[in-house]
Amino acid sequence: MTAPAELRSYLVANGADRQPHGRRFLLDHLEGVHRILVGAKSEPDVCAAGLFHSVYGTALYKPRLVDTARRDEIQRLIGARAEEIVWAFCTLQMRAKALDLSLQCGNHDWLAGKVACRHCEPDRLWSDLIRVECANLLEQHALQEFPSIGRHAREIGIVDAEGFLV
């Protein structure tokens, strides 16, 4: 499924189709993450978050399509809950490692101290954030680098037992 036209147009207007991301452009990656989440029958807020997951830049991917001062604009566009997932994705340091470790330990209370949850409960934000991270890593062919996230991707039906997209 392609990204909704209004959301895709917004990303293009902000340069996602010109911003390098590996050997392609950020828009390609964002749409790939969105496709994975839609295919996994994720909630609409999670799919929207996947489409925008790195618009504020991240610890590893520095380019910012949208300045953080424009959070309200993003909230109006994709919804408050989706934007909260995006904010957490963009601001958590060592996000993939921290999420992988939280799955290993079965402890995700640390998230409450890192991200203020205004639009959903911390447990829900944690599970939504991991779902977006699963799709992000899968789309970049990096899921195998985080074994607990890979197992979780199988448990929630994003990939099959062999690690292939469902």
Structure description:
The protein is mainly α and 166 residues long. The chain has a single domain (5-155), classed as Hypothetical protein af1432, CATH 1.10.3210. Helix content is 57%, strand content 2%. The protein has nine helices and two strands. Strands 1-2 form a two-stranded antiparallel sheet. Helix 2 (26-39) packs antiparallel against helix 3 (44-52) and helix 2 packs across helix 8 (122-139). The longest helix has 18 residues, at 122-139. The two termini are 14 Å apart. The model has no long low-confidence stretch (mean pLDDT 89).
Structural class: mainly alpha
Please tell me what the overall shape is: globular
CATH architecture: Orthogonal Bundle
The total count of strands amounts to: 2
Counting DSSP H or I runs of 4 or more residues, the number of helices is: 9
Mean pLDDT metric:
89
What is the CATH C level class, in words? Mainly Alpha
Low-confidence stretches: none
| Share of residues in strands | under 5%
The largest sheet has its strands arranged as: 1-2
The count of domains is 1
The SSE order reads: HEEHHHHHHHH
Compute the CA-based radius of gyration.
15 Å
Biggest β-sheet: count, sense, barrel? 2 strands, antiparallel
CATH fold descriptor: Hypothetical protein af1432
Amount of helix: 55-70%
How far the N terminus sits from the C terminus, by CA atoms, comes to 14 Å
Provide a short characterization of the protein structure.
This protein is an all-alpha fold and 166 residues long. It has helices spanning 5-13, 26-39, 44-52, 71-78, 80-91, 95-105, 110-114, 122-139, 147-155; strands at 20-21, 24-25. The chain has one domain: Hypothetical protein af1432 (Orthogonal Bundle).
